[in-house]
Design a protein that fits this description.
heterodimer, A: about 475 residues, alpha/beta, B: about 210 residues, Methyltransferase, Methionine Synthase (B12-binding Domains), Chain A, domain 1, Rossmann fold, 2 domains, 9 helices, elongated
Chain lengths: ~475, ~210
C-alpha cells in the first residue's frame, strides 16, 4: 500500500470546484493578450473588451478537462525516458529562477555567474534523487533580455536531465524552442519526446499577463508541456482561509487549462502552483509555513480528482542559511508532497522564499528526496512469508548479515544516504574531522562536480546550440558569451 | 602474478568456490604459500577493507569476502604450517562482568574472524580472572573487552591490573569498546587501544599485532 495524505473531504472538493467554476463564468479572468482573448471568445467565452475580462462558461471547462491528458512523459537530452508524470509517482526538481546563490565560502548570498550555473548543472546530473534540472537561478553576467534562454542553453549544453524552465518574454520562446529542436533533431521529435516543462504563471487575483498567456499558446503549438503556477497569497491577494485560497487557485488553474486545451486539445500540462499564506507581520510569503504546504497538497488533491498530473513549489525554505530551519521546512514540505503524490515536486536547493539557490542545500535535499522515495514505496512483504524458515536460519547462523534473504533485499528495503547524512559512531565522526552538515555537504558538492565527465550531446549538436545562443546574444548586444569557468 | 590477482578479485566478489579452486591452482603451480596468502587472499581482503571504509560496499559483502578468504585459507593452511608461517594470532573477546550486552562484541567477533584472526569468545558477564586465564591458556595476543553500562566500565581496569600482576602485561595487548567508553578512557586505564566499531576493531587489532 502506498502511504497517502488526504486533506479534503470529497464533498469539499466538489464544492470548491463548483465555486471556482462559478467565479470563472461570472467574474471571469483578466487577460492581457489579444490572441488568447480572441481564442476564448471564438469558443463561446463572453468577452468584455473594455474591462479586459473574459468570462469562461462551465462548458469550456468541461471540454478542457475532457481533452487534457491524465499524464505525460519526459525524456532526457539523449532521448531516454526519465519521468512518467501520472498517478501518484513523485519526482523532484530543484527550485527555479532564484536571483541569488548562497556562497559556501563567505556564507553570503550573491549574484551568480555562468560558472556557478554550470557547476549547478553538473551537480544536478550527479544527484540520483533529483530527477530533472531546473533553470535554477539567473546568471547575472548576461543581459536580462537573454537570461531565460541562456539558462536553458547552459542546462542543455552541460546537463542531461530534462529541464523545468520558463520564458520571461514572448520573444524568448522562439530561441528556447529552437534550442530544444536542435537537441531532438526536429519539432516532431520534440513533441514526441518532451525535454522541458515551461512554468506559466497567472497573476493573482485571476489575471493572465501578455507574456504568460502567450507562452501557453506557444507551448501548446509545439507540444511542450506546461505547468500552471497559480500564486494566490492567503489574506493578501486571496481570501485568508485555506478553502478560499483553494477556490482562487482552482479558478486560475482551470482558466490556464482552458487556454491550453483550446489552443491544442491534448496539450500536456501539470496542475501546479506556488501559493502561499501571506505573513502580515513581515509582509512575506513563507514557503515553509505549514498552511502553505497544506494548500499545495490540497490543490494537488483537487487536480487528482480532476484526473490531471500535478506539480507544486514545496519542500523549500525561507531560511537564509543552510541551518536547522532550512532542514525543518524542506523536509516537512517534501514529506507532505510525497504523501500527497504530487508528480513534480519543485523545491530542492531553495532558500529565502524562492530567491536563493544553494548547491550545498541541494545535496542535503537530495538525501531528503532519497528517504522520501523510499517512504513512497511503503511497506510490502518480500519473501517474508512463511517467516519461520528465516528465524530458523537466524537461530542456526547467529545473525542475518549474510543470509540470502538479507542480500536479496538489503538495498531495496534500506535506503543508504550519502556522506552528507551522518550515521557514524561518535568516535568515528570525531576521527573524520567532526564535520558539520554544511562541511559534509560542501565536500559532496566539490566531489560530485569534480567527477563530471563533460557534455553528453554530440559535437555537432553542441555546436548548433552554441550558434543559436550566440546569435540570440548578438541580437541583444552581447558579442561574446561569458567565460564558462571562473 | 595473474592468478594471484584473480584470487584477490574473486575474493572481493565473495566467490567462495572460485577462490578455493584458484588457490589450489596457485599451489599446484608451485607459487610460494606465503605469496599466495599475502598477495592473493590478504591482498584481496585489504581492498575489501578499504571499500568498506569508504562505503563502497557494506558489511554483508565484507563477510562474504571473508568466507571466500577462509575457503582459500583452508587449502593453504597445511602448507603454511609446514612452512612455519605465523598465523594472525588469537583474540580473547568478552563483555565484562556485570554486563550482559553483547551485540557489539559479537559483531567485532564476526569481523575479526573475517579478517583471519582466531577468536575465542568468552560471552558476556566475564570475570577478570576468566579473561586472564583464557589469555594464558590460549597464548592469546589480544584481549578485547566490551561494556555498555557505565557501572561495568571499571571492570576493564581490573582486567588490565590482573594481567599485569600475572606478568602478561607486555605480551598480551588490550583493546576496549562499547558505547560509554572512549579513547580517553582507554588511556586512563592503560588499555592499548579503543575501537568504535567492528571494522575499526579489526584495524586497531591488526596494528597491535604487527
Amino acid at each position: 500500500m502506498r502511504p497517502k495524505l488526504r486533506l479534503l473531504a470529497d464533498d469539499l472538493i466538489t464544492r470548491i470546484l463548483d465555486e471556482a467554476r462559478e467565479i470563472l463564468s461570472t467574474l471571469g479572468v483578466e487577460i492581457h493578450n489579444d490572441a488568447v482573448v480572441t481564442l476564448l471568445g471564438d469558443h463561446g467565452a463572453q468577452v468584455d473588451r473594455e474591462a479586459g475580462r473574459v468570462r469562461i462558461p462551465g462548458t469550456l471547462v468541461d471540454r478542457a478537462l475532457e481533452s487534457a491528458p491524465s499524464g505525460f512523459r519526459l525524456y532526457d537530452a539523449l532521448g531516454q525516458e526519465t519521468h512518467d508524470l501520472s498517478g501518484d509517482r513523485v519526482y523532484f526538481t530543484p527550485g527555479s529562477a532564484a536571483i541569488n546563490l548562497l556562497d559556501p565560502e563567505s556564507g553570503e548570498m550573491r549574484r551568480p555567474t555562468t560558472a556557478d550555473y554550470i557547476r549547478f548543472v553538473k551537480l544536478v546530473t550527479a544527484l540520483p534523487h533529483v530527477a530533472s534540472q531546473s533553470t535554477a537561478f539567473i546568471p547575472a553576467d548576461v543581459p536580462e533580455r537573454i537570461s531565460d534562454s541562456y539558462r536553458l542553453y547552459l542546462s542543455l549544453r552541460h546537463g542531461v536531465k530534462p529541464v523545468v524552465t520558463g520564458a520571461f518574454t514572448i520573444e524568448a520562446f522562439e530561441v528556447m524552442k529552437d534550442l530544444q529542436v536542435a537537441v531532438r533533431g526536429s519539432g516532431e521529435a520534440l513533441a514526441e519526446k518532451p525535454l522541458t516543462v515551461f512554468s506559466c504563471c497567472p497573476t493573482a487575483p485571476l489575471k493572465w499577463s501578455d507574456v504568460t498567456s502567450q507562452n501557453l499558446l506557444d507551448c501548446a503549438a509545439y507540444g511542450i508541456p506546461v505547468e500552471y503556477i497559480s500564486m494566490p497569497l492567503s489574506g493578501f491577494m486571496a481570501p485568508v482561509t485555506l478553502v478560499g485560497t483553494l477556490v482562487q487557485h482552482t479558478a486560475e488553474t482551470l482558466s490556464g487549462l482552458v487556454i491550453s486545451q483550446l489552443a491544442q486539445p491534448g496539450a500536456p500540462a501539470l496542475y501546479g502552483g506556488s501559493p502561499a499564506i501571506f505573513d502580515v507581520r513581515y509582509e512575506t510569503t513563507p514557503m515553509g509555513a505549514v498552511e502553505t504546504q497544506m494548500i499545495d497538497c490540497a490543490y494537488a488533491e483537487i487536480g487528482k480528482h480532476l484526473g490531471l498530473p500535478t506539480q507544486a513549489y514545496i519542500g523549500l525554505s525561507d531560511a537564509k542559511q543552510l541551518d536547522a530551519q532550512a532542514g525543518i521546512e524542506s523536509a516537512m514540505g517534501a514529506t507532505l508532497a510525497t504523501l500527497a503524490g504530487i508528480n513534480n515536486i519543485s523545491g530542492p536547493g531553495m532558500l529565502d522564499f524562492e530567491s536563493c539557490q544553494s548547491l550545498e542545500k541541494l545535496v542535503v535535499d537530495n538525501e531528503i528526496c532519497g528517504m522520501l522515495l523510499r517512504l513512497a514505496e511503503g511497506i510490502v512483504p518480500r519473501d517474508d512469508f512463511p517467516a519461520r524458515p528465516l528465524f530458523e536460519e537466524m537461530l542456526r547462523e547467529g545473525h542475518m548479515l549474510i543470509a540470502k534473504h538479507s542480500r536479496t533485499h538489503l538495498r531495496s528495503e534500506h535506503y543508504f544516504p550519502g556522506a552528507t547524512i551522518d550515521r557514524a559512531q561518535r568516535s568515528r565522526w570525531q576521527d573524520e574531522g567532526a564535520r558539520t552538515l554544511r562541511q559534509r555537504a560542501h565536500g559532496e558538492v566539490e566531489r560530485l562536480i569534480a567527477a563530471d565527465t563533460g557534455p553528453v550531446l554530440a559535437a555537432e549538436t553542441l555546436r548548433a546550440l552554441e550558434d543559436l545562443m550566440v546569435a540570440e546574444a548578438r541580437r541583444h548586444g552581447l558579442e561574446r558569451l561569458p567565460a564558462e569557468e571562473n | 602474478m595473474e592468478i594471484l590477482e584473480k584470487i584477490a578479485a574473486q575474493l572481493q566478489q565473495g566467490e567462495e568456490e572460485e577462490v578455493a579452486a584458484l588457490t589450489q591452482r596457485a599451489i599446484d603451480a608451485q607459487i610460494e604459500p606465503k605469496q599466495i596468502l599475502d598477495q592473493g587472499l590478504i591482498g584481496g581482503m585489504n581492498v575489501v577493507g578499504e571499500l568498506f571504509r569508504d562505503h563502497e560496499i557494506f558489511l554483508p559483502e565484507v563477510l562474504l569476502a571473508a568466507k571466500a578468504m577462509h575457503a582459500g585459507l583452508d587449502r593453504l593452511k597445511p602448507l603454511l604450517e609446514a612452512a612455519d608461517v605465523p598465523s594472525r594470532g588469537k583474540v580473547i573477546l568478552g563483555t565484562v562482568q556485570g554486563d550482559l550486552h553483547d551485540i557489539g562484541k559479537n559483531l567485532v567477533g564476526i569481523m575479526l574472524r573475517g579478517a583471519g584472526f582466531e577468536v575465542i569468545d568468552l560471552g558476556n558477564d566475564v570475570s577478570p580472572e576468566r579473561f586472564v586465564q583464557a589469555a594464558k591458556e590460549n597464548d592469546a595476543a589480544v584481549i578485547g573487552m566490551s561494556a555498555l553500562l557505565t557501572t561495568t566500565m571499571p571492570v576493564m581496569k581490573q582486567v588490565i591490573t590482573l594481567l599485569t600482576e600475572a606478568g602478561l602485561g607486555s605480551r598480551v595487548r588490550t583493546i576496549i569498546g562499547g558505547a560509554p567508553v572512549s579513547g580517553d578512557f582507554a588511556q586512563q586505564i592503560g588499555a592499548d587501544a579503543y575501537a568504535y566499531d567492528g571494522a575499526n576493531a579489526v584495524e586497531q587489532i591488526k596494528a597491535l599485532t604487527v
